[in-house]
C-alpha cells in the first residue's frame, strides 16, 4: 500500500510540475530575430527591452488565421479595458507583404513584429506554440505573468492584468 501511495504521489508531483507555467522566455526565443513594420530586423530581447517597465500583452497571430480574425473584437475590447498595457502582436504570417496587408485590413492597433520562421520555428517552439491566437502577459519586470491563453476574453488574462495594476 505504501508503494502505491508513493507512486501516486510521485506521479501527481511530476504532473503538477509539468503543468507549471513558464515565467521566463527561453534564450532561443530572446535571441530570435524578427522584423518590424519598417522591415528592420530586431531581436525579441530588444523588443521586450523597448517596453521595459510596462505591462505587455502578447498576441501571437497571423492574417490567414480565421480564429485570430474572429477574436479581434474581443481583443479590441481588452484594449479598451486595459489601455495602459502595451499590445505586442507577433505574426506567424508567411511573408512581410501578407502580414502588413493583414494589419491594415483588420485595423490591428499595437506594436507589430513578424517572426522569421513561422509557428514551428525557434520562437514558436520556445513558447510551446500549438495554436493561434495565443495570448501571453508579461509584467513590468519582464517576467511572464501568464504563459498561455487562447481567447482574448479568457478570465485568466483579465485577472492577470488586474493583478498587475
Global Rg: 17 Å
Q: Quick check: average pLDDT?
A: 89
Helix content: 40-55%
> Which residues sit in consecutive blocks of at least 5 with pLDDT less than 50?
4-19
The CA-CA distance between the termini, in Å, is 49 Å
Provide the structure class: alpha/beta
Q: In which order are the strands of the major sheet placed?
A: 2-1-5-4-3-6-7
Number of helices: 8
Give the tally of β-strands: 7
Shape: globular
- Strand share of the residues? 15-25%
Q: Tell me the series of helices and strands, N- to C-terminal.
A: HHEEHEHHEHEHEEH
What does this molecule look like?
This protein is α/β, with parallel strands linked by helices. Helix content is 41%, strand content 21%. The protein is built from eight helices and seven strands, in the order ααββαβααβαβαββα. It has helices at 2-18, 27-31, 44-50, 66-70, 72-81, 96-105, 122-126, 155-163, and strands at 33-36, 41-43, 56-61, 86-91, 111-115, 134-138, 144-149. It has a seven-stranded mixed beta sheet. A hairpin with a 5-residue loop joins β6 and β7 (144-149).
